[in-house]
Amino acid sequence: MTAIDKDLAGKSRRVLIAQLLMSLVVAAAFFALSAEENEWKALSAFYGGLVSVTLALVSIGGFKRANAIALSDPKQSMIILYIGAVVRFAAVIVLLGIGLGFLRLDAMAVFTGFALAQASYLMSVRDRTAARSSD
User: Fold this and answer.
1) Dist. CA 28–CA 120, nearest whole Å
2) Residue 36: helix, strand or coil by DSSP?
3) What is d(CA 3, CA 88) in angstroms, rounded to the nearest whole number?
4) Which of 3-12, 45-54, 76-85, 94-103 has the lowest average pLDDT?
């Protein structure tokens, strides 16, 4: 395992932990603040967070595949990244459709859980050394 692979694995783990923690916090907030059906709204919020975690896992898998062949075939590496973006887009539609249409989860809770987990993804992906140097 190269240093780049170890760095990617460490960042991936940090991203997933941040998203799971945010999903739990949002679910707990919906549980505590919802007067009616608080368990259902908390479950809905957690589902939205898990959709975001699933997208992160798909991204990480694509990044690992693209990184593995980047030096030998940069064009193929870019194709992998583009296909990964299309897969993530389709996964969002399918997973949110399942949650809202089939499972009949609370829409506000699902989208809140999804949005905040995505926000934690963006915050945890940001390069901390670049953030410190811009201050």
Assistant:
1) 16
2) coil
3) 27
4) 3-12
Structure-token pair, residue 132: 């410190």
- The model carries a pTM of 0.85
Percent of the chain exceeding pLDDT 90 equals 64
Cα–Cα distance measured from residue 22 to residue 36, given in angstroms and rounded to the nearest whole number: 22
| CA 22 from centroid of its chain's CA atoms | 11
End-to-end CA distance of the chain: 33
Per DSSP, the residues of 49-75 read HHHHHHHHHHHHHHHHHHHHHTTT-HH
- Taking a C-beta distance cutoff of 8 angstroms, is the pair 26, 113 a contact? yes
pLDDT of 101-119, one tens digit each?
A: 999 999 999 999 999 999 9
Q: Which two tokens stand for residue 45?
A: 């919020």
Q: What is the dihedral of CA 67, 69, 70, 73, to 10 degrees?
A: -160
Distance CA(79)–CA(6), nearest Å, equals 23
Q: Is 104 helix (H, G, I), strand (E, B) or coil?
A: coil
* Six-digit token string for 75: 């064009």
Q: What is the rounded CA–CA span in Å between residue 102 and residue 12?
A: 31
What are the boundaries of each domain within the chain? 3-126
